[in-house]
Queue: 2 jobs
Job 1
Amino acid sequence: MGVFKKNGSQTVWFENPPVIISTASVVGPQEGEGPLGKTFDKVFYDTYCDEETWEKAEQRLMLEAMKKALQKANLQEKDIDFMLAGDLLNQIVSANFTASALSIPFLGLYGACSTMYEGMALGAMLIDGGFAARVLVGASSHYSTAERQFRFPTELGVQRPMTAQWTVTGAGAVVLAEKGSGPVITHATIGRVIDMGQADPQDMGAVMAPAAADTIVRHLQDTGRAYDYYDLIYTGDLGTYGKKLADHLLRQQGYDISDRFTDCGILIYSGAQDVHAGGSGCGCSAVVTCGYLIEKLKDGSYKRLLGIGTGSLHSPCSVQQGSTIPGIGHALVIEAR
Amino acid sequence: MAFFWAFVIGGALCVIGQLLMDLTSYKFTSAHVLVTFVTAGAIISAFGLYQPLVKLAGAGATVPLTGFGHLLAQGALNGVKENGILGAFSGGVTAAAAGITAAVVFGYLAALAFKPRG
């Protein structure tokens, strides 16, 4: 039996494109004050989100986003076939604990900051493959939990270089369905893991840019499309420096997409917020997609999006031992219907 | 004049620490500065070069981390004079006992009052 729904080396296409019937985004104070503040469903004005610890706050963000997405689609937990979710914390506790509060069959994912896109790609495959009618996908991150785990305790007050990005405090959730109204996912390009020898955890943009550029080129080659088929091509969290690097790498391979290329990490904060190179984390691409970008598809500003969820696949231990950091990028084509 | 030199020397030591972090894009962290300064203070002190700085700047030289290294080195040297080679091991901490105990006591008190969560 051959591979029926795959084009080229890395791209799958959906026969009956799964529909994004609802999305929800819940964020922390800094994201709420940013330029996209109005596009989020809920903003907490305290990073503890009425909980005792930041870890519990992150779970609260994810649970609220999941419930909000269900509520917006008028669905209950029993209507969902599978829940796919992940986050940045050890053993993906935010997703696991959230799943324990929802009684939905659960598959935990770890794709670092690309998790939302990995989840949506898999969710779309489950639906178009005939294994599910509705899938709930979510991802979360929190500045303070990520900072403590991946870099330094926040009390230590270690200064951040200009290449450092600010982990988004927020969670996004999506309900994908076999049918319904809303934007659809038509293709997914699964990324390859690429390690260009970068080892600095304070410069994640440089880790992920080569993977993002590779996935964009693969996608265009696999589908035979010109880049201007899309109204907007965006990456998850490359930040200002990473985006420049991706632009450069794409040009080297003969693709100049700069007139319609942006990054969720650049969109989510304004320059005045002093976040240095922009936003990052699972929550970054998740809340920008679930809030701003879906809104833009629905109001007709954009018709076809190519989004690349980018992830930096290191652990605190691998960095401490001096290993270089591999990156990944998963692309999805989201079209207005 | 005592205040002036305390400010200049103490400030200069801190500038060195800050530059070590700034010029390495913060790959050199405050923890690295701590270890480097204590070690450097002890080595400079062993060559007899730190005591003149203390004479000139007082607290400007004793309060920064290099001053702690100086205290450990001098304590170890005195320990050897009084107790022989075993004093090299006990002298340093004996000399620094007040500072270490103060750190433990005030650290404990602060931990009782606040709940560290970062």
Job 2
Amino acid sequence: MRFSGIRKFLLYISAVMVSIYIVLPIYWAFIISVKKPDEIYSKIPSLVPSKITFDRYVAVFTGNEKLLPAGGRVIGSATLQSFMQGFMNSIIVGALTTALCLLIGVPAAYAFARYIFKGRTFILSFLTVTRFIPVVLLVIPLYFITLSMNLYDNVVGLSLVYTAFELPIVMIVMMAYYEGLPRSLEDAAILDGCSTFDLLFKVIVPVSLPGMIASSILAFIMAWQEFIFALVLTSSRAKTMPIVLAEFFGRYGPQYDMLCTGAILAALPILIISACLSKYIIKGISEGMGRVI
Amino acid sequence: MRYARESRNAYVLILPALLIVAMFTLYPTIYASILSLYDCLPGKACVFVGFSKYMQLFSSGLFWHSLKVTLIFVFASVSAQIIIGTLIALLIYYLPKGSNILKTLLIIPWALPGVISAAMWRTILDYDYGLINGVLRALNVCSPDEGIKWLLDPNLALLSLILIDIWRLSPFVALLVLAGLVAIPKSYIDAAEIDGASTIQKFIHIMLPFLKPIYKSIFIIRSIFAFQALDIVFVTTKGGPGTATYLLPYYMYNEAFAFLDFGGGAALAVILALLIVITICIFYYIVFRTLVRTP
């Protein structure tokens, strides 16, 4: 479609406005995290900080509260350490969830994409529908279930719950990928006498790497951002970053310098992943979420 | 033939997925429904009370208020997200250059944890030190001691939550709609253009029918998750001021984990789940058929 100059100009202006709208909260949180305290807690806060300090980030990484900029409100070293612990827990839970989702989801997706068997449609719809069971309905029972299984406040327990919840998405993305894959390669492997499991791990997995990247990014992002399960199923050792920040806000209220430092820390992996792997994420979203119903 | 012979293998491949999903989703669903019929207080054995937890809720003013607030939140934010998301998708669809950068930006609000987005927005909407009030004061729209009480005014607090949710998920809707737009065969759109259709006519008569299935999924996915918005309440208003933003999930969380009435919390969760199902059914069978017709 061809546009006249003025319409083109309007399109670009709107694109810039949308970009500013999306980036603004992240920019604002970032400059708060590097501003001097008196510039943050001002009736007219500055849009561009006059002086930049990364001391708050250094304080979080070292757990040393003495490094925090002078003039800010007092925060103990235990709080700083909880930021770091939450960050590490989020990474562990994200990685574990992703690994479990692939390990369990890839073979299942392959089976659904390539085999015809009794109950296929029923099992597939069951697995898909579970993604839509409200988290709020599951969370109270899961509190008791994880308690009784010794999985409460445990990164493994949390990862298992996330895996159960994200498997359907991973499976749908993988199935979409397998459907686009020609069968000739598998047929040749079978003719050569390859067993089902050799076929899966030596032939299918290597050729379906792009699909696996897309679904593992989705699994990681969803584990990284999840809130309700993490809130109820953890209490001290396994708290993830969103919970640490929510509790920080609950205890200290609008203590914006550290709240924003934590927020930017928690946003960092997402920003990096989005910038580097956006193609896979968009593929995952449009093939996974868009195809669910 | 190969498939019949090897179908046993298929079950082996599926079994782990089936087990873990049944364990952590099917079993808790049944568990919750049963738990809602019991009175479980800490330190005491659970007592079967039938539907009295539900009756208690139905006779409480807070429940109906919370239901009203939740419905306003869900419908306002989901419909705004669909409209804004569609506009952004159309913008990217027509954008001659730079659409990839914009698409990458669109991922970010969806991928960020809700708590993080809400915390970021909290610093923008803050009465004393927030960006919006700061700008208003700098432009002399209001005096240094005044400003908009986004999160402190009971009438604005819910709107603020809706604004945060719109920021978080309109871009996600845009990505889905865009995927639908791109899939429309070019020849249809070109033909309409030759016939002299305007941009709006093209959207209504050519694109909308193609987008119908996508809009269905978007509405369903978005309303399911909007009904469960808990994270953004936690770091912005905590249900307040007063009970102005006391959404049902927050109500449920408090019942179960602040007041330790697990039966009451489970009853609320069951009601919330039914509410989601009813909303989707109404949407599916009434709203969608009248609003968007297949040609």
